[in-house]
Amino acid sequence: HIRYYYAIIEKYAYYNNLVHWHYIGIRLISPLKVIITHFSTFTHNNRKNISMLILDDSLKINHGKTRDCYAHPTDTTLVVKTAFSGDGEGLLSNANELLAYNNLIKLHPELSCVTQCFGYTTTNRGEGLLCQSIRDDNVSISESHWDIKVNQNDCKLPYIKQVITDFCQHLRAHDIFIFDLNLKNITLQLKNDSTYTPYIIDLKSQIDNKEFIPVSTHIKYFARKKLARRTKQLIARIGEYRKKRIELIEIERNEKYKH
To answer: How many CB atoms lie within 10 A of CB 237?
Structure first.
């Protein structure tokens, strides 16, 4: 773990010096925070960290740029997010997501529109982050907004747009400052009455504010303005992505082939 995090800090510092040299003094504090979160969580009453979890490709639900997501082999209420083999960015993504979740929960103790993070566990594919698994009422893994909008032929576009609009209004009304709002980060849980309940399933980008001067991190007025812009963009993409679905399906197919 020490070697992993030394490499992460070194890589993160190099990136910040190139892209965020103007803010390097503060930005380098972030890796230190995630390391502290990592070790404190790893040793603090982790209810699932009893023995090594054995993961295989049959359990894989999805993957991102740096991480794989697996169904928990014995607990259907959990998923496990692991870094690609030897990928320091994937480990940092897990640490950032846990830190972002803990920060949100402090501000919104009753938060229910975001998947819960439970801490770390050991797996045969490296250290994993345990998170809540969002499943439909029929127990199937819920699909992302992207999967429904782009891949399904018979999706109910006006209804989905209303669900997302209401969801965005909820975020703004309660000052839930989540800015990385894209179709792949929002899961729509299908209920028995054919309605959807949205959840945000990825918080890793919350920690990394790329503003020249990160006023939205510290001043609520600017955070509200930023959230209003991001939610407006999300709603606008609903119709736009549906129209471009054939092109997007081909792009996604090529990405999976590369992975």
So the answer is: 18
